[in-house]
UniProtKB/TrEMBL annotation, chain A:
Keywords: Membrane, Transmembrane, Transmembrane helix. It comes from the Bacteria. This is Zinc-finger domain-containing protein. It comes from Terrimonas ginsenosidimutans. The keyword Transmembrane helix applies.
Automatic annotation (TrEMBL), chain B:
Belongs to the sigma-70 factor family. ECF subfamily. Pfam families: Sigma70_r2 (PF04542), Sigma70_r4_2 (PF08281). This is RNA polymerase sigma factor. The keyword Transcription regulation applies. Residues 127-177 form the RNA polymerase sigma factor 70 region 4 type domain. The lineage of its organism: Bacteria, Pseudomonadati, Bacteroidota, Chitinophagia, Chitinophagales.
Length: 170, 193
């Protein structure tokens, strides 16, 4: 079966003109010398020609007219690259990077480095870095506030775009 | 009428405000688009509706066509996504290539078409009928390759898959089409020999 498949695959490539010149020579010889290959080639070639003979279907006579009537009231949308605002993309990126960085710094600040094994020494003594001013109530509140405002802003933009899409569809 | 112009020139005209130039593009590709849509919908009315939708979408998005590929390849990408969306909306099942039941389902869907076959023995009708019995995936790839003059690379772009995967799919589709023809049109095939 798999041998048969390989034979068919090779013959289809040959018929489609996609075989390499070396492969083409080999298949030419096989078709010439081997009855099984010759029969299969004849069968596939006939199927190939039949597939080419299939015809395209035609839509109704008014098809083009209908489309032209529809688009008469439409305008071509500006190219996507012209309305994709890079500032928004950067805003989203900064939003997520700030959150990730914030959590990482906070997480690292919480680690008790002294409880680890004493086999390896980290060149920086993290326990001596004082992060408490960064995480006092005022800073955390400002950070969270900024995130909430940014989050609400992005959510609003998302809802507005959805609303516009719905209007367009309607 | 600007019929002698190539696709890119016509698109430039449309983008420049000559809306009538789009009619030339529609006339040029309507049969390809309609045939592809029909392979999915298996129904002329739906295919016409979907085809119109495709051309309207293409018009709206024309400014996004950068000319990196052929216009036809870009257009068939819209055909593919619109037809898949249409099938989803209609809650019809999109059958997987690996689903063996696909042929039986296709058979049952097109029993009406086959009923007319006794009167339509021509070679062209036979092939078209056999293609209509295939799953939409198989019928699409055969139409793209044999009728829409798309290379394997271009079909890969349209379908969003690798060229090698296109090769495999095309091979399977051709095998299934031959099986269909043997099963349903064996006498007609023999008449042609």
């Amino acid at each position: 079966m798999s041998e048969q498949l390989t034979m068919e695959e090779r013959l289809w490539e040959y018929i489609d003109g996609m075989s390499t010149p070396e492969e083409k020579t080999v298949i030419d010889q096989l078709i010439e010398a081997n009855a099984e290959w010759r029969a299969k080639y004849g069968e596939l070639l006939e199927a190939h020609q039949l597939m080419f003979s299939s015809e395209l279907e035609e839509p109704s006579m008014r098809f083009t007219k209908n489309i032209m009537e529809e688009i008469a009231v439409l305008q071509i949308a500006p190219a996507a690259k012209s309305y994709i605002n890079k500032k928004i993309i950067w805003g989203i990126a900064i939003f997520f990077i700030t959150i990730i960085a914030g959590f990482l710094i906070y997480g690292i600040g919480q680690v008790k480095w002294s409880s680890g094994s004493d086999g390896t020494k980290i060149p920086v003594d993290f326990s001596k870095i004082d992060l408490s001013p960064m995480f006092n109530n005022t800073y955390i509140n400002i950070f969270m506030m900024l995130n909430v405002v940014l989050g609400l802003f992005l959510f609003d933009r998302y809802l507005a775009s959805k609303r516009r899409e719905r209007h367009k569809e309607a | 009428m600007s019929t002698g112009q190539n696709d890119n020139e016509l698109i430039s005209n449309v983008l420049g405000g000559d809306q009538q130039a789009y009619a030339v593009l529609v006339d040029r590709y309507k049969s390809y688009v309609f045939t592809l849509a029909l392979r999915f919908t298996k129904n002329r009315e739906d295919a016409e509706e979907v085809s119109q939708d495709i051309f309207i979408k293409a018009y709206r998005a024309l400014a996004d066509f950068r000319g990196a590929s052929k216009f036809s390849t870009w257009l068939y990408t819209i055909v593919n996504t619109t037809c898949i969306t249409f099938l989803r909306k209609k809650r019809l099942e999109v059958y997987s290539l690996d689903n063996e039941n696909v042929f039986e389902v296709a058979d049952s869907q097109d029993s009406g078409l086959r009923a007319n076959l006794v009167e339509q023995k021509s070679r062209v009708n036979m092939v078209n009928q056999a293609i209509s019995l295939l799953s939409s995936d198989d019928a699409e790839i055969i139409t793209l390759f044999y009728k829409a003059e798309q290379s394997l690379d271009e079909i890969a772009k349209v379908l969003g898959i690798e060229t090698n995967a296109v090769k495999v799919r095309l091979h399977r589709a051709r095998t299934r089409l031959r099986e269909k023809m043997q099963k349903h049109f064996a006498a007609e095939v023999n008449d042609l020999n």
